[in-house]
Write a structure and sequence with these properties.
Length: about 180
């Protein structure tokens, strides 16, 4: 999370606990989308919640902008995704913070399966705008659902499944371009 996002939550009691509950549920859903994979790169691993939901024996490779001990440190706004030898990737709660969404999506093309979440432009955002408020997350962009899905398809991904995580946020199971059958 960016410092702006972290600072905005410091004075909001209970926000971190609610977010952690949501993140755990999202990680559990993502693990279901990644079942059958032998190795997973968890891009934006955060507290590494995904790890505990993956099947036994799955090789887990955590990556994050913050050094959490044992993860690969990378800031995708300033450097490319480092080579990781995994069949699948997860990217949960990360895309919103990236400046070059297309550039990052193109780097995910080599994975067979990608579990990726996105917070779409929604009625909640319209309400914030009407009230003259800014959302506190520090997101770099905010696309409508159709625009995000168009970006996914533009990079050759096939959307195999999608599921609502919470209001405004969707989790997708993508098949990489080299592995898509449709």
């Amino acid at each position: 999370m960016t410092n702006l996002a972290l600072d905005s939550f410091k004075s909001q009691p209970g926000v971190w606990e609610r977010l952690r509950t949501t993140w755990e549920a999202r990680a559990s859903m993502a693990a279901q989308y990644l079942s059958g994979e032998e190795s997973v790169a968890d891009i934006g691993c955060g507290l590494m919640s995904l790890r505990k939901y993956l099947s036994a024996g799955v090789r887990y490779v955590p990556l994050d902008v913050v050094d959490r001990g044992g993860n690969i440190v990378v800031d995708l706004n300033h450097a490319p995704l480092p080579p990781v030898d995994t069949t699948a990737a997860s990217m949960l709660g990360v895309i919103e913070y990236l400046v070059d969404v297309d550039g990052v999506l193109s780097q995910l093309r080599s994975f067979r399966t990608v579990a990726i979440s996105y917070n779409h432009w929604s009625l909640k955002d319209v309400t914030y705008r009407l009230l003259g408020k800014k959302r506190p997350q520090g997101w770099k962009h905010h696309m409508k659902r159709t625009d995000f899905e168009r970006a996914i398809r533009r990079h050759g991904f096939f959307i195999e499944a999608q599921r609502r995580v919470r209001w405004g946020e969707t989790l997708y199971r993508l098949r990489g371009p080299a592995f898509a059958t449709n």
